[in-house]
From TrEMBL:
Domain Pyridoxamine 5'-phosphate oxidase N-terminal: 10-138
Native source organism of the sequence: Candidatus Curtissbacteria bacterium GW2011_GWC2_38_9
Segments traversing the membrane: none
Lineage: Bacteria, Candidatus Curtissiibacteriota
Pfam family, one: PNPOx_N
Official protein name in the record: Pyridoxamine 5'-phosphate oxidase N-terminal domain-containing protein
Length: 154
């Protein structure tokens, strides 16, 4: 087992090769999870769009502490790869939406990348943009370190 793997490289591989994340929020009602398609950037920020009235949106607006899980398609036999992420989620400022949208639409395989904020708004009408900024990432990468997980702080 490799004791000093390049964790940034492993995280990028898992993010690049995965399409969906499970986002966990918490409120007085208790915990909640939602499956979301995401985009990401070089700092491992995760971007998604949601309707304002979804439970996860309402909850993260009140309590921005969230967790997420991202798993590559499982293969079994000690080959599984994934991430467990702690961080803060928030509505994305307007000046950051175009860049986030391009990452998000690239992940979805959208053939035409939006060039302006107006194009993004047309494509995502009725939904808002959000970002999860990780404070800690746990990596499990079976081929390199079995069932042990490694911690990465961005």
């Amino acid at each position: 087992m490799d004791k000093n793997p390049d964790l940034r490289h492993l995280i990028e591989e898992i993010l690049r090769d995965s399409r969906e994340m499970i986002l966990a929020t918490f409120s007085a009602k208790g915990p909640w999870v939602a499956t979301l398609v995401f985009g990401h950037d070089a700092n491992f920020n995760l971007y998604w769009i949601s309707f304002d009235n979804t439970r996860h949106t309402v909850e993260l607006e009140k309590n921005p502490q969230v967790a997420a899980a991202i798993n590559k398609q499982p293969t079994g036999g000690g080959q599984d790869k994934g991430l467990q992420i702690e961080g803060k989620a928030m509505r994305l400022p307007e000046e950051q939406i175009l860049g986030a949208a391009r990452e998000y639409f690239a992940k979805r395989g959208t053939p035409h990348m939006p060039k302006t904020l107006e194009e993004v708004n047309t494509l995502t009408e009725g939904r808002s943009w959000f970002v999860l900024k990780p404070t800690k990432i746990y990596i499990y990468y079976g081929p390199l370190f079995g069932y042990e997980r490694k911690e990465f702080v961005p």
